[in-house]
């Protein structure tokens, strides 16, 4: 249902922006909200935008998380899969 994806996107943008302001751009919670928005964009068919955002998320997660962290692994896997499409 596109209406639900639109509502989800609106909330995720708000959460991400608030998290950036309150916690900082590299905070794990901010990066989780960024990844969530990328997955929503992908589900909406906005693949190019999703790839750009998940790539940014991966780059930031690589700076702040260990290579073995599951959040980093998940983002990397998504990026690889989406770029291969």
From TrEMBL:
<dbReference type="Pfam" id="PF13374">
    <property type="entry name" value="TPR_10"/>
</dbReference>
<dbReference type="InterPro" id="IPR053137">
    <property type="entry name" value="NLR-like"/>
</dbReference>
<dbReference type="InterPro" id="IPR011990">
    <property type="entry name" value="TPR-like_helical_dom_sf"/>
</dbReference>
<protein>
    <recommendedName>
        <fullName>Kinesin light chain</fullName>
    </recommendedName>
</protein>
């Amino acid at each position: 249902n596109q209406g639900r994806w639109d509502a989800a996107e609106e909330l995720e943008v708000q959460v991400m922006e608030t998290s950036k302001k309150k916690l900082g751009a590299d905070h794990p919670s901010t990066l989780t909200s960024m990844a969530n928005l990328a997955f929503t964009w992908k589900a909406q068919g906005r693949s190019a935008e999703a790839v750009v955002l998940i790539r940014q998320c991966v780059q930031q997660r690589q700076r702040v998380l260990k290579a073995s962290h599951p959040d980093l692994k998940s983002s990397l896997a998504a990026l690889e899969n989406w770029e291969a499409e």
